[in-house]
Amino acid sequence: MIQKVKALANTIEGFDIFDTVLTRSVSPPSAVFWTLGQWLRDERGLTISPAYFAEQREEAERRSAAHRGHANSIHDIYRELTDTLMFDPGDAPELIRKELELEKQATFVIEPVAELIRDCRAAGKKIMFISDMYYPEGLMRELLEHHSVIEPEDKLYVSCDHGFNKSSGQLFTHVMKAEGFKASDIAFHGNNEWADVRGAQKRGIHSTHRPLANPNRYEAILEDARQETDGLSMAFAGASRAARLAVDAKNEHEAVIRDVAAGVAGPMLVSYVYWILRRSENMGLKRLYFLSRDGQVLFDIAKKLVEKWDLEIDCRYIYASRQAWGRAFLDESVRAWVWGDVVEGTSLRDILTRLSVRAEDVIGDLDKLGYGADRLDDGLDRADVYNLRDYFASEEFAKTTFYSRQRHRDMLRDYLDGVGMLEDVPKAIVDIGWTGTLHESLSILLDDLGAPPVHAFLFGLNLNDTTWKGYRHGFFYDTTRELGLLNPLERKNLFVMSEVFCAADHGTVSGFKRHDDDSVTALLAEGWEGRVIDWGLPIFRKTLDALVDALPVSDFRAPLVVSMRYPLNRIIRAFWTDPTEREAAVWGSFPWDAGQGDEDKVNQLVRPYYGPKDFIRRTVFRKRPPYKNNIYWVEGSLAVSPGYFRAAVRQTNRLLDRLWPLVVKAKKIKKKLRP
What we know:
Blueprint: H1 2-6, E1 12-15, E2 22-24, H2 31-44, H3 50-68, H4 74-84, H5 92-106, E3 107-109, H6 111-122, E4 126-131, H7 137-146, E5 155-158, H8 159-162, H9 170-179, E6 186-190, H10 193-201, E7 206-209, H11 217-224, H12 232-246, H13 252-283, E8 287-291, H14 295-309, E9 314-318, H15 322-326, H16 332-335, H17 337-340, H18 348-355, H19 359-368, H20 382-392, H21 395-400, H22 402-418, E10 427-430, E11 433-434, H23 437-449, E12 455-461, E13 472-478, E14 483-484, H24 491-501, E15 509-514, E16 520-524, H25 528-535, H26 537-550, H27 565-577, H28 581-587, H29 612-620, H30 634-639, H31 643-673
Parallel strand pairs: 1-4, 1-6, 4-5, 6-7, 8-9, 8-10, 10-12, 11-12, 12-13
Antiparallel strand pairs: 2-3, 13-14, 15-16
Helix pairs in contact: 2-3, 2-5, 3-4, 4-5, 11-12, 11-27, 12-13, 12-26, 13-14, 13-26, 13-27, 13-28, 14-26
């Protein structure tokens, strides 16, 4: 940075203040007024809501500025506000002081710019702060001194003291005349392109745009939802910005991971865990078990929030997977997931892996059906799948695997006993979603053992008529109870995105092992950890930690976290259905494995369109690339494809959507005319 400073002949470095040197842990700036309104309600018995107080504080600022122009100060604003709300005018100084104290608490230094200021000082440059703000110099200097940014010899100019602003360039002219220097003597830095860059350039001053702290598109969505969330989304918007500013990215790939973690995954996962803790307290639950692998990141978030809010909830991480738990049962509801992702090209060995069945245990039966050892790795067609599904549901299969199943059941029981699952403590398991397969397995086992039932928290819960549905609870949507969002992101896409965000740093739990001392531990598939770490999991997790640390929610019970569903839906859709090219390239390179136990087979979620045949196959015939588990990010693939493909796909989809009702109607007519 010193070299960049020396490249110019200037002797003065000027800086804007808000969102250039300092920024807030809440967003937008008016969030501070909400906090002041809450303080007045809680400490002074204010009868109006914090939201209404904040609105009137903003209106008072606008009206006062209309009267006084750029000379408008905080004292003028509070004279207007106390008159509007019929407060005692003598209360204004205390309110101004309290607002400044809240600004001190809410603001923090943008470290890269602070480092630049230190470098400028080391290079012998003079430092000057120039701001469009209603705080006069005394209060503004106090704020900067609080954050150890300003030195006694630094100059400070504020618009309200001089009646000029930066956008017009007049404040810069006034400063140059007052200090006796010319435009070539100063270089300026600011976040606002209009006021800080163009305003300075109008007066011939070299200016650098520094938009680091400006809200990105996800933070803007959260800001806009402040009314419907009673201000909670503003806290998440500020925490998102604080997290991305706090975490240093080494390259563009890491920067994209960090920004999506802060703006999309972080608010989504932290809101979910926040809701879990609130529900747990309301239900009297004392212990939460976070199921691997999707639960690992949720577990880390929960531990930090429990400590942050000093809650008496015991959070534990346990090893689980559909194949490791389901291998102990023949229940069809437990095994239904096995067939949901079978597509053209799936092999018999794939299915055996999902069922946790060794080929040598059933090869005799399979050979009789025409599926010998030489066909284990062949792709299956639809007829093969039906034949095999009948076999795996047969008495013959049950008898062949009985002793193996019983052995796994005993190990699962002993493992769960070792982690306290069989204890008579009010508890729940935590997973990301979607049908409660693991909860079904656990509930069957606990019921057989006479142990108390356990609740399950899921981010999204699909309709599933089961004996245990009364113990399941969905946050984002709960189709079983007909609660939550009616139209979330299309379920398959939500499933893929959520499980990418919940990636663990270890492989699938392939089973359990009993040791000589009779203890039972989990067996983890190998090969996954290196891939996901190389992709960028460490910076993703680091960003989530930073967001939790920055979340300015001190009263655990006050905000209604369920109100976050709608802004979450908007940021999720913004990311998944309209990704930037950089986002699609980085997140589309995630090594997707779907937790099926075969860590050697992973997909990339994105594949660019590469020619007319590919376009026709994917768009007209709606055929997806033959990916394992049929997982494919359509919008991400479009984002990394040439523009003419994007336009052609969208036009074709619009045409097909219009034609489809006609096709359906034609089919009905044909059916009626059929003899």
